[in-house]
């Protein structure tokens, strides 16, 4: 009897940044959050790949590699990094356009994932300006 294919999750967390002009501030606490998310997904029977401090090229390569892997019912992607409008930053401070990631996983580029629902969680700023945030009321 064959085993059912296991759903996959790719979690990328960038906490340290460097570039020729000095880099960006470290993201304290992001590693711990990503590890907790990875454990929660593993408890839901996902095969989780957790990657730390990847350059823009390495991030794109990770998504390209997913196109050659067998997936179960779902694919979950979590990226936690600095960002800018429409992009997340690799640990080398280079942007990875979100549209590029979505294109890499599109049915045309990635037929193995064509019928697989894909869920993306992005935790990143979209530039230097601060927003007003939201108010939350709890009982």
How is this structure best described in words?
This is CASPA protein. One of its GO terms (biological process) is proteolysis. Residues 5-129 form the Caspase family p20 domain. Belongs to the peptidase C14A family. Pfam families: Peptidase_C14 (PF00656). The protein has helices at residues 30-43, 56-66, 98-104, and strands spanning 8-13, 47-52, 75-80, 83-84, 87-89, 95-97, 118-123. The chain contains 3 helices and 7 strands; from the N terminus they run βαβαββββαβ. The protein is globular, with a radius of gyration of 16 Å. It is of the alpha/beta class and 139 residues long. The chain has one domain (8-123): Rossmann fold, CATH 3.40.50.1460. The chain has a 4-stranded parallel β-sheet, sandwiched between helices. Strand 4 and strand 5 (87-89) form a beta hairpin. The model has no long low-confidence stretch (mean pLDDT 91).
